[in-house]
UniProtKB/TrEMBL annotation:
Part of a binding-protein-dependent transport system for a sugar. This is Probable sugar-binding periplasmic protein. InterPro entries: Bact_solute-bd_prot1, SBP. GO terms for cellular component: cell envelope. The keyword Signal applies. PROSITE patterns: PROKAR_LIPOPROTEIN. It is found in: Cell envelope. Belongs to the bacterial solute-binding protein 1 family.
Length: 430
């Protein structure tokens, strides 16, 4: 069968547009019963439409083509940082009982609404068939299990609490790049030194990047145990330590370039990566690809370290794929879930993406194929205390996260002060 790899643009948000760019004459054919249909194609919705994400998807599709040559991959990618546009489109399609064959989501609480609504199949049987319970670490299986069932298959694991720092800017401010601050207060002092040197201390982009920054400050100021209690509803959002974290967030936000608050993570990161004009950016480890594409070398041009105060904590998120109820090509979905969870698929994808495989059964030789950062992240994921990301859907249900991002937007516009922001988060968590 001839394959078609069709990449849909962000503008293709209508059902007709997505159908048009599927590149398949039999789009929409087959039974809507998830127990029937053929494996001749699989329609996949992601937000991997540009940069390292797109390259990672292409590497994954290459493995898919080798493993399942009779199943056509149909790319229905929708652009937008952290998947905001894709999630909006998906909710409309799922409610209308017009699901894709599979879609990308963040593993964890983000899927709770879709599970409760009955949109997703239990894929626990595939975990047995593909022997994933032996391949994935127990800590990951626990985060994927809901009332004894599993509803998605992860392609990777990312870490959110990483600071990426420009060596030149730090040294010009008299700071030692090899010795980062060990607390948020000490980090703010370093930022002031950078500001006094005439450079931008830190940069952030749109609301999801700001929420990621805030969650890492919460982890630093509360510690892993109390952060987990906060996520579980066992610690109040008006706790004194939470208030301290929000004040720290406000201080740091006032050191950023407000002109970038409407931008996605890559434009906001440029000052650290290629312009030597900004010292710090807090970003998930997909950021390493931006340095690689600019031929920057770790230790020489940039350094990375956990957000000060979070050493020994791994702020977890994972891209995961589902099997929707009513998918038109359920066997094709199974083929895709098989590839993205396979050792070959995870190695090919994560080498490019900057994340680490969800599988814990890689050999030493296979681990050695990965760049320095990813090797360090694999080690940390096996030893650090794991907490779940708010911004990336692992910690809280999607409606809660969306309310928090909306509140940050109001804070950005000046319609809400930092105390109001803290109260808005408390209200959202209810």
């Amino acid at each position: 069968m001839r394959r078609v790899l069709a990449v849909c643009a962000a503008a293709a948000l209508s059902v007709s547009a997505l159908t048009a760019c599927s590149g398949s004459d039999d789009q929409g054919s087959g039974s809507t019963d998830s127990g029937s249909g053929s494996a001749n194609q699989v329609n996949v919705v992601t937000w991997w439409s540009a940069g390292s994400e797109k390259k990672g998807l292409e590497a994954l599709v290459e493995v898919f083509n080798e493993q399942h040559p009779d199943t056509e991959f149909v790319n229905e990618a929708i652009s937008g940082g952290s998947g905001d546009q894709a999630k909006q489109k998906l909710q409309t399609d799922l409610a209308a009982k017009n699901p894709p064959d599979t879609y990308q989501a963040h593993a964890g609480a983000e899927l709770s609404s879709d599970i409760a609504a009955g949109y997703l199949e239990d894929v626990s049987g595939l975990y047995d068939e593909f022997k994933l319970r032996e391949a994935f670490p127990d800590s990951l299986i626990e985060r994927l299990t809901v009332d004894g069932k599993i509803y998605s298959v992860p392609s990777n694991v990312h870490r959110a609490n990483v600071v990426w720092a420009n060596v030149k800017v730090l040294e010009e401010a008299g700071l030692d790049p090899s010795t980062p601050a060990d607390s948020i207060d000490a980090w703010i002092e370093d930022m002031q030194k950078i500001k006094d040197s005439g450079k931008q201390p830190i940069t952030v982009g749109s609301t999801w990047t700001q929420l990621q920054l805030l969650e890492t400050i919460l982890i630093a100021d509360l510690g892993a145990d109390d952060y987990n209690k906060l996520m579980a509803g066992d610690l109040s959002w008006d706790d004194a330590a939470v208030t301290t974290a929000f004040k720290h967030f406000d201080t740091i936000m006032n050191m950023t370039d407000k002109g970038l608050w409407s931008q996605d993570w890559e434009p906001a990161m440029a000052g650290v990566v290629s312009e030597d004009s900004v010292a710090y950016n807090v970003m998930g480890d997909w950021a390493v690809a931006a340095f690689d594409s600019s031929s920057k070398k770790a230790g020489e041009d940039y350094v990375y370290f956990p957000v000060p105060g979070t050493a020994g904590v791994f702020d977890f998120l994972a891209d995961s794929f589902t099997k929707p109820v009513g998918a038109k090509h359920p066997e094709g979905t199974n083929d895709w879930l098989n590839t993205i969870s396979s050792k070959e698929g995870q190695i090919a994808f994560n080498k490019v993406k900057g994340s680490i495989p969800a599988r814990s059964d890689l050999t030493d030789a296979e681990i050695a194929e990965f760049p320095e950062y990813q090797q360090s992240a694999m080690k940390d994921f096996g030893t650090d205390t794991i907490v779940s990301s708010i911004a990336h859907g692992a910690a809280l249900p999607l409606p809660v996260t969306e309310k928090m991002k909306k509140a940050i937007g109001q804070y950005d516009s000046g319609a809400m002060d930092v105390a109001g922001l803290q109260q808005a988060f408390a209200d959202a968590a209810k």
